[in-house]
Amino acid sequence: MSFLHRYLAAVQSFTGVSLDAVTSGRAEVARNALPQAVLFPGVGWLTGLLACTVFALLGLVLPDGAYAPLVAAVGCTAATLCFTRGHHEKALALSADRLCLSTADRPQAGGLPGAPLGIDGVLTLGLALAAKLSLLAVLAGQSPPAVLAALLAAQVVSRFWPLVFARAHAHRDDIAGRPTHPLSHSLTHRELGLAFLWCVPPLAIAWWGDSGLFALLSLAASGASVWAARRLLQRKRQPVDGMALEAAQQVGEIGFYLGAAIALALG
Q1: Do residues 214 and 148 lie in contact, with contact meaning Cβ atoms separated by under 8 Å?
Q2: Burial class (CB in 10 A: 0-12, 13-18, 19+), 114
Q3: Is the distance from CB of 77 to CB of 58 less than 8 angstroms?
Q4: Does residue 80 lie within any of the structural domains?
Q5: Is 53 inside a domain boundary?
Q6: Band of the pLDDT at 180, cuts 50, 70, 90?
Q7: How confident is the model at residue 225, as a pLDDT?
Q8: How far is CA 79 from CA 53, 54, 73, 75, 86, in A?
Q9: Cβ–Cβ under 8 Å, residues 196 and 162
Q10: Per-residue pLDDT tens for 191-214?
Q11: Mean pLDDT over all residues of the chain?
Q12: b vs e for 9-29, b when ≥16 Cβ sit within 10 Å of the residue's Cβ?
């Protein structure tokens, strides 16, 4: 099977895009190709390019003003939510619910796919979206090229850290009754290296477009955020399943924007 077909199959798995043309090739992809998780950061390229395009177009058509960057941030975030169907945002909210439940309550209450979203999940999701929008507005207010570089790189890099997360735990998806999640494979070091190659061009663009500090601090903040999320799961003795890994993408994305904003302030 060609790389294009493998990539399209990964896009179908990790976003809300339906690609019927590759549906018949799913079994062949599973048997003969690298795990789809290796292509997860590559799907971030599409999401990032969509975010950059919408942000740039809104920036061109909106009148100059204090709220223009915020409106552009809302627009590009809405576009990415539609593209991914909010899979990662849902996972973040459900993971927050699950973290706040007692051990006895977990099988009966929220924090599982299909369960009603609890107050902890709602608050977490609201705060996450607010953090994302405000950080993007801050970046755009300081440097329009920097926010575009951050939008692209954050979508790619934040999809790499969950793979490291999974490798560190060498886990299996352990929620009863759930199908195996595409991210629930422990990748080899070689496969992790291939996944990281997706991150090199956007980080190079960020380095060239702004500075080495901008690229490195953003990368470090993103990784540190996911590491902190991993430590929280360990302390709460939570399973590291596909839902937790999707939630880690959101944590890594917000961490990247935070690091980028700090780098601009230091620069």
Answers
A1: no
A2: exposed
A3: no
A4: yes
A5: yes
A6: low
A7: 96
A8: 10, 7, 10, 6, 10
A9: no
A10: 899 999 999 999 999 999 888 999
A11: 85
A12: bbbbbbbeeeeeebeebeeeb
3-state SS track over the chain = CCHHHHHHHHHHHHCCCCCHHHHCCHHHHHHHCCCHHHHHHHHHHHHHHHHHHHHHHHHHHCCCCCCHHHHHHHHHHHHHHHHHCCHHHHHHHHHHHHHCCCCCCCCCCCCCCCCCCCHHHHHHHHHHHHHHHHHHHHHHHHCHHHHHHHHHHHHHHCCCHHHHHHHHHCCCCCCCCCCCCCCCCCCCHHHHHHHHHCCHHHHHHHHHHCCHHHHHHHHHHHHHHHHHHHHHHHHHCCCCCHHHHHHHHHHHHHHHHHHHHHHHHHC
Structure tokens at 85: 């169907």
**Domain count of the fold of the chain:** 1
| Distance, CA of 123 to CA of 56 (rounded, Å) | 30
Residue 209 lies in a domain: yes
Q: Which domain holds residue 191?
A: 34-266
What are 138's two structure tokens? 């801050």
With CA atoms as reference, report the closest residue to 248 among 163, 144, 190: 163
Residue 104 in this model has a pLDDT that exceeds 50: no
| Over residues 1-17, mean pLDDT | 84
Q: Which residues make Cβ contacts (< 8 Å) with residue 67, sequence separation at least 6?
A: none
**In-domain check, residue 18:** no
CA 14 to chain centre: 10
Rounded (5°) CA angle 176-15-28:
75
pLDDT at 234: 83
CB 151, CB 50: distance < 8 Å:
no
